[in-house]
Design goal:
- The chain is α/β, with parallel strands linked by helices.
- The chain contains 13 helices and 19 strands.
- It has 2 domains: about 5-220, Spore Coat Polysaccharide Biosynthesis Protein SpsA, Chain A, CATH 3.90.550.10; about 225-380, 2-C-methyl-D-erythritol 2,4-cyclodiphosphate synthase (60s Ribosomal Protein L30, Chain: A, 2-Layer Sandwich), CATH 3.30.1330.50.
- Helices cover about 30% and strands about 25% of the residues.
- Strands 1, 4, 5, 6, 7, 10, 11 and 12 form an 8-stranded mixed β-sheet that branches. The chain has a 5-stranded mixed β-sheet with strand order 16-13-19-17-18.
- The structure holds magnesium ion.
Length: about 375
């Protein structure tokens, strides 16, 4: 099989209201357009691709999509959807057959779906993937705003793309479009031209992204995976210094050596946040040489780390830390420490875990010469608090 695929991404995206064209919106690290093109580019039955874009984007097309293994051309769309499809078809070479038409607003078509459409189009001349309606469908008398009829649900199927056509059926469909039929999909043009259109199983995951709510749902699915980071810190303990953890001063005769408050808990947590966001580490963001951060309290550094990862599009979902020190006992202070952290991390206190352990008298920590902390942070997508 040597199918040619027309990917239609020329719509005005008016229902989305974003400041970038809908096909260029990010879905978990790749744009909607890239996802839509990729699945066809790797399908063994596909020989050529044409992407129909808004005219302003055509020149940038190759860089927007990136390298493809099949020939991929870029053309400007027309006034109506069917005009865009006609222009796309004109850019395919004469040897490809069948022709598939796909909406770039459906970035989750998969190989199996494409297989079914190609096979049915090759065999029957025209094929549309569809899923059963789950809701009861009413035909509404719009003048009176009353139900005119309840349609038999088992006969109601919702059409998706890609839709597939043999070259000759597709040419008939385009001729029907030229005669003035206004169509919301390509199968409708083939129907009007008198061809039977086969229905093959669609895929519930092959959703069309039309509104900001659609986008939010899909984002949650594709980029909703949490990110995890770890952090570690250790400071030597010396006489005559305060012992501070998350801004809470503990009654003890020794504290971390150095200029800063040596708050191992906040330092380990900040590194965990940076790690999860892939945003470097504490030494890079708060260099000793920068007077602004040189002696800054650990809690301030942590607050700034939260801001930085938020700028990368992440917010804190939860943190867990273990403080290792021989003395004093931390248990009486953990509630206060968790409260302070929850405040700075902008999460409820149940999402902040702080545990304490001794080192059983072993090593420098066990001898009371140092305090250490391990931390894990989980981030989820989203910049809002
Ligand atoms: Mg430190």
């Amino acid at each position: 099989m040597s199918a040619g695929v027309i990917i239609v991404a020329a719509g005005r995206s008016t229902r989305m209201g974003a400041d970038v064209p809908k096909p260029l919106l990010d879905l978990g690290g790749r744009t909607m357009l890239q996802r839509s093109v990729e699945v066809f580019d790797v399908h063994p039955g596909v020989d050529e691709l044409v992407v129909v874009l808004p005219s302003a984007l055509v020149t940038a097309g190759p860089s927007l999509v990136g390298p493809t293994s099949r020939p991929c051309r870029f053309v400007a769309g027309g006034e109506r959807r069917q005009d865009s499809v006609r222009l796309g078809f004109a850019a395919l070479s004469a040897r490809v057959d069948p022709i598939l038409v796909h909406d770039a607003a459906r970035p989750f078509a998969d190989i199996g779906l494409i297989d079914r459409v190609i096979a049915a189009a090759a065999e029957g001349g025209a094929a549309v993937p569809a899923v059963r309606a789950r809701d009861t469908v009413k035909r509404v008398d719009l003048d009176r705003q009353v139900v005119a009829e309840t349609l038999p649900r088992e006969e109601i199927w919702l059409a998706q793309t890609p839709q597939g056509f043999s070259r000759s059926v597709f040419e008939d469909a385009l001729a029907a479009a030229a005669r003035g039929v206004d169509a919301t999909d390509d199968a409708m043009l083939a129907e009007r031209a008198g061809h039977a259109v086969r229905v093959v199983p669609g895929d519930e995951r092959n959703v069309k992204i039309t509104t900001p709510d659609d986008l939010a749902n899909v984002r949650a699915a594709v980029s909703g995976l949490p990110r995890v980071g770890t952090g570690y810190d250790l400071h030597r303990l010396v006489e005559g210094r305060p012992l501070i953890l998350a801004g809470v001063t503990l009654p003890f005769e020794r504290g971390p050596h150095g200029h800063s408050d040596g708050d191992v808990l906040c330092h380990a947590l900040a590194d965990a946040l940076f790690g999860a966001a892939g945003a470097g580490d504490i030494g890079q963001h708060f260099p000793n040489t920068d007077p602004q951060w040189k002696d800054a309290p650990g809690l301030d550094l942590l607050g700034r780390a939260v801001e930085i990862v938020r700028g990368h599009g992440w917010r804190v979902a939860s943190v867990d830390a273990t403080i290792i020190l021989e003395r004093p006992k931390l248990a009486p202070h953990l509630a206060a420490i968790r409260d302070r952290l929850a405040d700075v991390l902008a999460v409820t206190v149940d999402r902040v875990s702080v545990k304490a352990k001794t080192n059983e008298g072993v090593d420098a920590v066990g001898r009371g010469e140092a305090i250490a902390a391990h931390a894990v942070a989980v981030l989820t997508p989203g910049a809002e608090r």
